[in-house]
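The material for today's practical consists of a large collection of protein records. Backbone structure tokens are a discrete shorthand for how the chain folds in space. An example says more than a description, so a record of this kind follows:
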Amino acid sequence: MKRYLIEVRGLVEGVGFRPFVYRTAVKYGLKGYVRNDSTGVFIEVEGKEKELNSFIQSLKDDKPRASEIHFINVKELEPLGYDNFKIEKSSESDEKLPVIPPDLGIC
């Protein structure tokens, strides 16, 4: 069992990224949480190494169409034994970064 803290920066707010992370984590049987603040999305996730690696690859390959990933940082931590995976409430930061969503077609 391993636990990773994954930081994702880019256009990941207001584009369905956290629900995507939740669905992907559940798909791979992972536990932990996802939350965002003004700098990006933070994911703490636990599971077997193979599933964790598949999860990280899926973040890159299967991300929502409107999202854009500029940076992913992965740090290994000691496992905590999370019971499930959840979307945590967003945290607010003093330093706001502007979010400009992509111009998408209606159909």
User: Anything to note?
Assistant: The helical segments are 17-27, 49-61. Residues 9 and 40 are 5 Å apart (CA to CA). Strands lie at 2-11, 31-37, 40-47, 68-77, 85-87.
